[in-house]
## 1
Amino acid sequence: MRCPYCNAEVGSDDAFCGDCGKPLPRAPKEERTTRTPLIVGILAIVAVGCVIAGVVIVAIGGGIIPSLADSSPTPSQLATSTPIPTSILPPTPSVTWLTYDGVELGVSLEYPQAWLVNEDLGVPQVVFAEKEEDLAVDAFLLGTSFIVVLSPTDDLDLQSPQEALQYATEFLLQTYAEVEVGEIEPRRIAGHDGAWVTIDGEFERQSVRLKGWLASIVVYDYVYLLSGAAPIEDWSYQQPILTSMLDSVRISEPYHPTVLPTPSPRPSPTPAQAPGADGYEPDDSFAQARPIATDGTRQSHNLHMEGDRDYVYFDADQGAGYTIETLNLGSDIDTIIYLYDGEENELAHDDDGADESPASRIRWVAPSIGTYYVMIRDLGDDSAGSSATYEISVVSTDAIEGADSYEPDESLARASSIATDGTYQTHTFHVTADLDYVSFSAQEGVEYTIETGDLEGECDTEIYLYDEDGNELDYNDDGADDYASRLVWTAPSSGTYYVLIKEYQGRAGPDVGYRIWVTR
């Protein structure tokens, strides 16, 4: 056997050439024949910047993944004069950003203008790469890339981002002998609790050495697996860009992520432009959001093109209640509204919660003083023009109707004390995204049962258990009857512990309630 670089004689088991010192190609590993969509996603991510060949992943559901040769980017370009939020700007280098908005995948993010995009609904996934050859099929092409892959949680029974990354890293270590990965750590991603793991070492495939990371969140019954990586010689330049892309990711519920057995190639859609943009345009991003008063003054908008997004912002006072709603909808629009904090983390969303469906309403109490953002869009993203009109209003009140006697109890610091003798408390989820905390004293080694019940208003509770430092200890969704929750837990040490109760679907109102009790 000879070195492919200097033609020197080398042994079949040698990892490096003794003359030139370069790494020697390794024999390919045996290919597995059965892979779930998440494994396909992991392979795409492990390949770091490659789109796996259709012939390699033909085993998925008996289907064939389509060619990704169409690399025409689909997102709309931000005006060069529009400032980009500082939270997504990398420290170096200077980059002009575009916005990708994948409605079918439920993913939006900022990416460099010079990069290319391929969206594959068959996997489903979206790939961003610096070079066209890194989007090609039939080869593992290793270049700078950012990849987002979706997989239903039912496919592999993965219920947390940590489990998803554990699965991914185990697969990665089994497949590539030279890979070194760091510890899985918690990380906030797109406003959700997620996790990530750095590829701290360097791993080698086809003589290309890379660095990068994997990240994951679990939301809307999907595992979102994300990656960013680049050749090691480019890492110092590309790392801040890839990290900024991760920080800019926003997730909404996917609308058409169905895995198709034999999908046809998707041409880049051309949005249907309608005349008559309203007087608030452009208002298509956080940076372009328009102010709105909190005294109920209505603003009249229309979605002037398919996929249009309208952003408004308002200043809120800590503890004040706010009702945000759409009204007087046109004949061809179904609004959905999203509420974000100043760091662009999603706080709540609503589709048909207003008195007259399909209008939307969020009832919310501000956790702190600050600026908050509202985004309005059409549910199907296919309405535009004179029939896609609506009004938006924000009304501030000192209190929200239907608050129970334990309010305010939206944080550990404001948790209401509950006995451990089975005495129940009656609570309501009086506003959208309401959080209720209770606290109890526990003794080391004693078993406690924490339970919700007597649910009202189609309530579906989730309960989380925390220690005094706010570390999550346990969680349950439907462990009791119907949609009620139950945790059976033994205290590791004596002290005060906290229980957070949330409504799984975000339902709210004076009639959406439950009882909670703790027994020992």
## 2
Amino acid sequence: MANLLRLFFRVLGMFAVAAIPLSASASESFPGKTSDWHGFVRHDFQVKDIPVTVVRPRVALAGRPWVWHGEFFGHKPAPDIALLERGFHIVYVSVPDMLGSPHAVAHWNDCYDFLVKQHALAHKVALVGLSRGGLYCYNWAAANPTRVACIYGDAPVCDLKSWPGGKGQGKGSERDWKLAMQQYGFADEAAALAYAKNPIDQLAPLAAAGVPLLHVYGDADDVVPWEENTGVIDRRYRQLGGKITLIAKAGVGHHPHGLEDSTPIVEFIARNSPGTPQEFVDAALLPIWRTSRLTEPMFFLQLDPSAPPTAKLLFTPTKILAVTNGQRSQTFEPGRDYDQLGHSENLTLPSQSRIPFKTYDELYPLADSTTPQIGRQAGDKSRGIFFDNGHGYHDLQASVTYEFEPGAWQQPRPIVEDSALGRTRAKLRSGEPLRIFLCGDSISEGYNASKFTQAPPYCAAYGELVALALAQHAGSPIEFRNFAVGGWSTNQGLAHCRENRLGSQQPDLVIIAFGMNDVFQRNATKFAENIAAMMGDIRRESPDTEFLLVASMLGNREWGIPIEQFALYRDELRKLASAQVSIVDMQTLWEKLLTRKSYYDLAGNGVNHPNDFGHVLYAQWILVHLLPELAADE
């Protein structure tokens, strides 16, 4: 069951929505009393006379993501402990007898303002509603939909009539029903029964904001019957176009809460929250031509059984600082695990090496083998290409940190026009809030970034990296929404833009990144027409919106993708450039990279997605267009 759920979250194509706080470098000096909580520092203090608890991680992620409990903080703590280990803050506000009433929502608003404005926690928070905690989470979320990253409900109360009212299949609670009458100010029971602002009634704002939901429940619950609570949320949210995942526990009542293996809960919250290790944000802000130190992936391949497995770095190292596995959990030793060929950029693996590699037969398995693969159109067509849309390639790629001569990278570089994107750049210079939308395919959705596949070191996809880096560098509050969906071409992108009236939401900047799927249609003119139509539709309702159009990285030519089409598609994009529209040319960059590296060094899945290194490069090339000071040499 756990393995199936891991796979589900790895490949699920949900909208990922994130927003980034004012600063990623706020002090950890929370007020109040400190104590130990499962090996982490706990702070207890008050905000406007309301008790607040914050447990802070040892090292906070860039973006400072956090989890907010509606009730019963500390019960079943395994997910919280795992998230603290990843760099999340955990928060609880103690208003236990308010049952999510408007008074409770007001106190939550005060706490939110304090934590976000004074301590720079992320603008969007993951909410955890356990039992009656569902009332707090959903009612606050309905009042603040753009501040919510995701909601995890554990047997959550979603309708006062069900609990504590007991007006359906559940037992109810006479004491808490009277308390609800008082807290909500109902004149009588008839008014309580007619109340139309229960969580089940206030889902439209959450669906419109793209908030993903996860509910865990027991199908034998007779305290908070799932049909009257989670079941209603599920039906209504799907009808509104919202994304919800259910995990049922067969034969289980209201207790015990949680899951024996909390991995699906942790992965759901981590994937849908802003935040990534600081190193990746720093790397996004340090373009490859401005550095003499790099952390780079290597995929070792043994094409000839008589020769050692070999891989190649981008630059000739002056010093190799560290070689680890892709997940950073194992450090490799020179001589034992790898050798450098002279003073070249080539590394080889001795026979006793612990570094993984693939032989020719493993990388290109026979078509009738059971090895996960995708069809191969170039070379021996009786063989496929090893394919993994999770973290299979990530696990096979060694991570090498090394120094090289300054100025080793000269070309290509992004072409940045001084007069382009003036409104967006001005907002960033003055630290004003900025709303960024991303439309695209699976690359933009985040596929094969290690955060997306839930593998260490949890590098975020390029869109989130851009938002985090802008917040850090410019000090602007960044609201980032990712509308990209795996498998989409510009046909679906245009339809989504029109159906959802993206322009009505007044984005400052829209990044449009299609092409990997479009090239199969071999119609560059139609591709450009669709993108022009998307921009036109948005501008009709938001004439000041500016655009970044991304020419896609290359696919693997051995897969059979029409490589010759990429240049045609890029050239059509260039015709759309203007003062409000800049072109981000990832294709030319990939062409250069492939003169020095193998496709499998850069691949996230073997055929058409980048790995962490590729997502960082995407972010670098985009950021230079928004922060032109990065274009210059150091």
